[in-house]
Amino acid sequence: MNQLLLKGLLQIKDNLTFSEIIEYYKQIMQSIKLQLSDDPELSGVCSALLQAFTENSRVLRHCSGGGNQTQTQNNFGDHQLESDIQCEVNINRELQKSGFVSHSANEESPEMKQQCEGGRYIVTFDPLDGSSIIGTNFTVGTIAAIWKSDDSLLIGKSGRDIVSACCCLYGSRTTVIIYNQKEDKVQEYTLFDSDKQGHWELTKGNIQIKQKGNIFSPGNLRSIINHEAYREVLEYYFHNGYTLRYTGGMAPDICQIFLKEIGVFSLFGDAKNPCKLRYLYECAPLSFLIEKAGGKSFNGQSSVLDTVISGYEQKSEIAVGSAEDIEFFRQVWKKHGLLKN
After folding, report:
1. How far are the Cα atoms of 179, 184, 211 from residue 295, in angstroms, in the given order?
2. What is the reported pLDDT for 56?
3. I need a labelling partner for 255 at 20 to 30 A (CA). Which of 7, 59, 190, 267 fits?
4. Which domains are present in the chain?
5. Distance CA 129, CA 175 (A)
6. Are 293 and 286 in contact (CB under 8 A)?
């Protein structure tokens, strides 16, 4: 436990002694039983996220109908649920406790918030992806990306600068898809929380997405009225034996690609029905995980990870999944003269 961690923890309101701080994170590491990086501070950030996911899982389990709607909206105009806000609070609290995170930004509060002075990492996250379907008891999730911190606070960076990412699903079981930097693998861990603290166990050790699949999850179908290229791709899928599997939640629809190791998720827009997905909190971290697992991503021009960050409310179009399926998107876009290069 270094002085940076102590300095960060002293900035929070919890009245913890230094020995209690040490014991707190020692217990977390023992319960998680994994090391996700050779860098202990990056591993500590991952541990903090997993601890927050454990707390979120318990919050959502007892949140009937997804929780009451508050009287507030986030910066994107979405009505917030009590569960949205509580999940955001849980994550920010654990990140601050870690002492390793200088700033964080999230979909509910899309601006850089200082966590711990001197922290070496930035975390961007969507605290509760799929809140619009939570009332029907569909699976929802949390998406997060970890970046190295510097004075730019990510402006001018790209998705290529992500150092790790994860996506936690809260469904009939709670699982997390996470990049293990130490082993250079995308893995699945499952939460077992019958004990007081809960612990995560490895359930899929090396996810490798196959080159071609037969599952597709198309979002924003209203746009195909005017978006000829998008319509052509989807018509090809419909007429060539692909299976439609779409819940309306980005986290579960993309995570099925990891678990089945095939498939494609897409969401493109037109002038009337623009894409609403957020780059920093949804598209970049999930594209990072897909590409680390052997798949590809496409934003209408290039890999989603090549997008240069211009702001904290930036949006993006996206197709991710099996490499040959994503290459088909690029070929159709080229045919319709939509590629600039």
Report:
1. 14, 15, 7
2. 95
3. 59
4. 3-204 (3.30.540.10), 215-335 (3.40.190.80)
5. 14
6. no
